[in-house]
């Protein structure tokens, strides 16, 4: 039995064919590099603007959260002091504590709505920017295809 060499394996492999002949005659349509770079710059500008919107929203969210937590701890501290130093009856302390819990829950719900509103606004701004960019890009692509077709028919 004859020993098979690497060269024999290479020649019998259908994926080892010389594709340079195929690609030698392959023609790529002409494209305007300036248009490509302009589109690239626009995309970078849009990316920067959306990142700025997100950064501003994050900054606002951190500020809102900080204010909320500060107020929450101040209220908790005040309520604890009142309960520890008060000479009220247990029933009065319980009623006061119940009102405090209710106020805290109301404040938490209000805070959640405020955060949700901020996030919704940010999402809307980012999506509007991206949609506008996509529409412009599709229009530019259609214009480029039309130009290529017109130059091809001449």
Describe this protein's structure.
Residues 35-132 form the Phasin domain. InterPro entries: Phasin (IPR018968). It comes from Candidatus Bealeia paramacronuclearis. The mean pLDDT is 82. This protein has helices at 6-12, 20-24, 33-85, 90-153. It has four helices and no strands. The protein has 154 residues and is an all-alpha fold. The protein has one domain (33-140). Helix content is 84%, strand content 0%. Helix 3 (33-85) packs antiparallel against helix 4 (90-153).
Write the layout of secondary structure elements.
Elements: H1 6-12, H2 20-24, H3 33-85, H4 90-153
Summarize the structure.
The chain has four helices and no strands. The chain has 154 residues and is mostly helical. The model has no long low-confidence stretch (mean pLDDT 82).
Largest sheet: none
How many β strands by DSSP? 0
Shape: rod-shaped
| Low-pLDDT segments, ≥5 res | none
The portion of residues forming beta strands comes to under 5%
Helix content: over 70%
Distance between the termini: 64 Å
What sequence of helices (H) and strands (E) makes up the elements? Answer: HHHH
Number of helices: 4
Average pLDDT level: 82
Rg over C-alpha atoms, rounded to the nearest angstrom:
34 Å
- Classify the secondary structure makeup into a structural class: mainly alpha
State the domain count.
1
Organism: Candidatus Bealeia paramacronuclearis
Protein name: Phasin family protein
Domain Phasin: 35-132
